[in-house]
Protein 1
Amino acid sequence: MPEKLAKDFVLAHHYSASYPSATRRFGLYRVDAGEPRLSGVAVFGTPAGANVLSRALPELRPNIEALVCSRFVLTDACPGNSESWFLARCFSELRATGVKGVVSFADPVPRRSADGTLTAIGHIGRIYQATNAVYTGRGAARTLVLLPDGTILHDRAAQKIRKQEQGHRYCEEKLIRLGATVPRAGVNPAAWLRDALEDIGARRIRHRGPHRYVFRLPSNRREREAIRLGHPPLAAYPKAPDVPD
């Protein structure tokens, strides 16, 4: 599906309120009311960390034979089986283009905005469990910057501001909307970011790492099992979100 249409839907409906780097985008349309209505989007592409794919699926070519599922969001109006049906259709399309493995993460940490509104419920990857993904533990633990609206200022966004890279204005404008002062001409971007985060009351929270799931896409069982995993599979799926600090 078109990039802008996918991006607008994800920004409107995904709790992260952010859109990742994408190479493949799929849309789920409801047609029960006659006119097709976009009701879900799945985004596959390149992860922020260069080693995410090579460590999880070491024998597959990153970004060619292996992709990360970075956004998967459906509206509440979709029927109960829509998630698994949509995911299976996406995998069928990816398989036809030579993709053999997909890595996906579930963020188990609930988050609230400064006024106490729950903005992220804490996901354990139930849809991935229901579709028989291989659970391989957690991704890297890290410290996150939590903004007053309950969203995260990701490291890549902060880097864009510090280095004034493409997209920095969008990241700066978000902080300004949250109460940061407009940067003066000639101000050091790194110093402005530091002061802006302090001014708006951003908090740092410790994250134990997202749950990592791996899908091996070949339809033949022998071919699936021949794809080596870089992390040992774990027998038990996680059953509850993390307790926030």
Protein 2
Amino acid sequence: MVDGGRIPALFAGLCDDAAVFPPGLAPLPDAVVAHDDHVSAWYAGLVGPLVVAATALGELAGVLGDREVPLPVAVTLPGGPAQLDGVLEAVAGLPVKLDALEIAVPDGIGPDELLAAISAVTAPVFVEIPRDDRRVPLLTALSGTGHRAKFRTGGVRADLYPDEAELAAAVRAAVEAGVPFKATAGLHHALRNTDPETGFEQHGFLNLMLATDAVLTGGDAEAALAERDGAVVAGRLRGLEPERAVAARAGFTSFGTCSITDPLTELAGLGLLEAPRGEA
């Protein structure tokens, strides 16, 4: 799998650059400069778009100025479809490439109303799936539409982290509906871990990849999410046949991270990728 200086296909575009969001909270001008550095580096193949909030598009206009090379962005709409027209109008006037929209589902909006609101959008749409009984109806409604799902896997409080059973059920529901998904929040490490400062039980992004494969192949997704042994996780990923690797990544498209270099370093530490000579 490892080819020095190249990103294996299993990890291509895995890391969406969420530097401006907690806990990173990078100032937007710094985040843009850092993103440009990332996509110019040897590990550029690992990096997805810069994630920005709808409310930051005005500031982004000032940061980008008359930039010539469009900045790939994913825009979050925490206010739901009500923000959509304003976002599309703002993006049209910016030197950006809109890679995705990430739309929350406010209380009171059903699947039919949501789908109608995003029906004319040509960019990929990730619908943030609530952690309640709306999950399955929303995923069912998204099936076959080309739209995608977004799951929150953590946050600033312990209760914002779904346990293994809940997250496995969410992955299973998405896979069974044929809806690709991304994840965001709380995936600070490659492996399942207990945060030493907060005591929070945190999911690993590689565990989530293995859980997706487990659902696809009839395995134990909960056990995959619970595994903490790096050698075991890395070994299972190395052992994925090409078609299984492709299927797993078609299901689990990416995750948001406030640090691109942290997952890069952890993947290298597990022997899953290798920097070219002369690069750290």
